[in-house]
Amino acid sequence: MDATQDDVTATPALGRYAIDTDASTIHFRSRHLFGLLPVKGTFAINSGTVDVAEPVGESALRVEIDAASFHTGNDHRDGDVKSAKFLDTDKHPVITFAADGVEGTAITGRITACGVEKPATLQVQRTTVTASGFTARATTRVDRTEFGVTGSPGMAGRHLDLTLEVVCVRS
């Protein structure tokens, strides 16, 4: 990938882009054991599209995340989180983010997880425009209890810091 511009305010060319799911991921960080220890992991992205519009505020973004791809490297914890006690991935296999507005580096939208939809704002940290599309990094924080994920209070962290690392290719 030959970068042509690297700036948080870089705007890709107008048009539709597909998220390259093989090259993109969602990282998360949280705490467990009453906040004493960090937990890091990933989710895989099933699909996603970005529509860059003029004005930029009318751009659109939709990302579908594979809830069962939750991975921390600890099989016991991963299985527990995928169970009905937390994410209930058999019943709710997909987590979505759909944008409804862009202002500056803030992308506002809604996250749907475990059948519950809540507002969320992604803060774009970096956008790199390339010959074939662009890469982007954005962050947000979610409170799992707002989505009805209330298992293991104290033992499992309430907040997750999410970082989306996406590669977008013109479609």
Question: Would you write up a description of this structure?
Answer:
Strands 1, 2, 3, 4, 5, 6, 7, 8, 9 and 10 form a 10-stranded antiparallel beta sheet that branches. The longest helix has 8 residues, at 75-82. This protein has a single domain (3-170), classed as Lipid/polyisoprenoid-binding, YceI-like (Lipocalin), CATH 2.40.128.110. The protein starts with a strand and ends with a strand. It is elongated and about 45 Å long. Helix content is 5%, strand content 59%. The protein is mainly β.
Order of helices and strands: EEEEEHEEEEE
Main beta sheet: 10 strands, antiparallel
Helix content: under 10%
Number of domains: 1
Taking the alpha carbons of the first and last residues, their distance comes to 16 Å
Name the structural class: mainly beta
State the CATH architecture. Beta Barrel
Q: Helix count?
A: 1
Mean pLDDT: 90
**What is the gyration radius calculated from CA atoms?**
16 Å
Determine the strand fraction and express it as a percent band: over 45%
- Spans with pLDDT under 50 lasting ≥5 residues? 1-6
Q: What oligomeric state is this?
A: single chain
Looking at CATH, the homologous superfamily is: Lipid/polyisoprenoid-binding, YceI-like
CATH domain class:
Mainly Beta
- Strand element count: 10
SSE inventory with pairings:
Layout: E1 3-6, E2 15-19, E3 25-32, E4 37-52, E5 60-71, H1 75-82, E6 94-103, E7 106-113, E8 116-130, E9 133-143, E10 159-170
Antiparallel strand pairs: 1-8, 2-4, 2-10, 3-4, 3-10, 4-5, 5-6, 6-7, 7-8, 8-9, 9-10
